[in-house]
């Protein structure tokens, strides 16, 4: 085997046998294959990729998982995800016209000639949608050289209608259980569910979680709740502070207002322990269910603009990254995907376009969708965002779910206050508090933070923190930050200075 220079960009993420890889590709396609050593691997949250080139201009993608602990996916879990994604892609390619990469070869472990787990697949044609899907907010910095490439509302509607038609195809790819697909001796079988809610954020390490496969959708939703509860008790909460939703751009009049709100939110949460109220998950006893037909369709659990490719006319050319895919209840599949990220609440015109794509495709085949299933799908969207912890505003998702059950606005802070004196709640508070960082460490980080951003911001943050401690129902959401901006503008001028 020829010696390989280890200081090249291509080995940034892992050591592997490039010569063996190129020989494998040549053997599979029976054409000479090369790889540019200076190319820098494209690194995503869970995988890294490089491009292989054949002498006739065809390009393949070599993709390998990133299993560093920082990404929350361990080696064993990564092997399962890789095997399931390969099986899912082959199944979809065989049974539909949905544009997905073609899988040529895969190995789930590093016990192979290349030395790392990997998939060899076709390269997605077109350009990634994220380069053209631009949010609109006054004052938001844009690259003027690319402004002509950004999608108009009509373009976005076209993309969503196509996603609706693709979803209609997925409705027909049904299996008998809820779980993830695997390939065994040329046939496909459903095993444990590898969805984001079961695997991400190191949930893959939870042995107590039932991951199926599930015969009933209620059991599937209950397993997501179980994973969510254990996450609250044992894993870091990061930005998930229930009574302090993270600001979103569309909540504010301008991009400058949004940036100001994010500064104040960061100031406010710096002294706040990163934990949910311990009785929070108790209010999520009911789960949204709605049976529709026999079997469970396949769903892409991470359908973002980063995973969709389009041509110059906004025709979808490929959908990639199916590693967390699984079969799901029909109502979950029919939930309008958020854009540009799954956590983003779809705007009404996007919802309408997506549903139009679903219904028009089905009508051509003489089928219809029960409106009640679409109604449940919106509840499911909030439920999944919340339990997957793939959201920025847990409070708002919880409020929407509670409203769907109670059919009227509820005083959520009051509901929480009424349970603070329960023995089980106080005991759990003590357990969670024991996991908090030492006060000296918290004080040190606070001092470093406010030394950098300004002591005047610290004073305001302290007042809000005091309000939170005195009032369990204090909600630090967009209303607070907009009011504060207006108050400072009226006192000190528009810049608050």
TrEMBL record:
Top-level taxon of the source organism: Eukaryota
InterPro entries: AGP_Transferase, Kinase-like_dom_sf
SUPFAM superfamilies: Protein kinase-like (PK-like)
Protein name per the record: Uncharacterized protein
The organism of origin for this protein: Westerdykella ornata
